[in-house]
Amino acid sequence: MADKSDVRAELRDAILRGVYAPRQRLIEAELAEEFGASRFVLRNALISLAAEGLVELQPNRGARVREISVAEAIEITEIRRAVEAIVAGRAAENISDEEIVVLRRIETDMRAAVEQNELVRYSELNVSLHRTLRDIAGHGAATRILEQLNGQMVRHQFRLFLVPGRPTVSLPEHLAIVDAVCNRDTEAASAAMAAHVGSVIRTLSELAPEQRGSARATAL
């Protein structure tokens, strides 16, 4: 029978991949059978995911996948802007010659993905770039915070890449971050990252009226 850590990891991954939709009920008995775990283990996994902000526990109604509104996504991204800037600055301080080669390879691949209009590939490279910067920075507390925030933001991040023209806007921002980090310029790296995440916030703000209109249509 699966233990708590296994069930939590598998359920978390399923939520992030969209297997369970926002506001979908998470029925303990069904999940316990699906993951081969006891109800006790499953319940503890749900409590842990609720603490991470991925699951919502409702009194007398059980658990469901938590829906993150655009307004909340903007607030989360404002926090992320400050933490990501710290990570970029620290990466510029710590980067080795070998790690510069890795970042430059990601940069080349990102250029090619945009040129070939490979949006999914570009999205994957975006995740890889930010993860690589966190690894180079070696800032444990920042990494833990960002992993939690990014888990809550995964659906909105995917939507951002579907915004027409968004990759052509974000690519130069990413290239500026890579240049500053590879040049070991801590101030420029932090500023470039803050500017990039600020651009994400502006794009999310443009999506907010769209979501409000969709909510009104659903209510009607």
From TrEMBL:
One of its GO terms (molecular function) is DNA binding. Pfam families: FCD (PF07729), GntR (PF00392). Keywords: DNA-binding, Transcription, Transcription regulation. Residues 1-68 form the HTH gntR-type domain. InterPro entries: GntR_C (IPR011711), TF_FadR/GntR_C (IPR008920), Tscrpt_reg_HTH_GntR (IPR000524), WH-like_DNA-bd_sf (IPR036388), WH_DNA-bd_sf (IPR036390). The keyword Mitochondrion does not apply. SUPFAM superfamilies: GntR ligand-binding domain-like, Winged helix' DNA-binding domain. This is Transcriptional regulator.
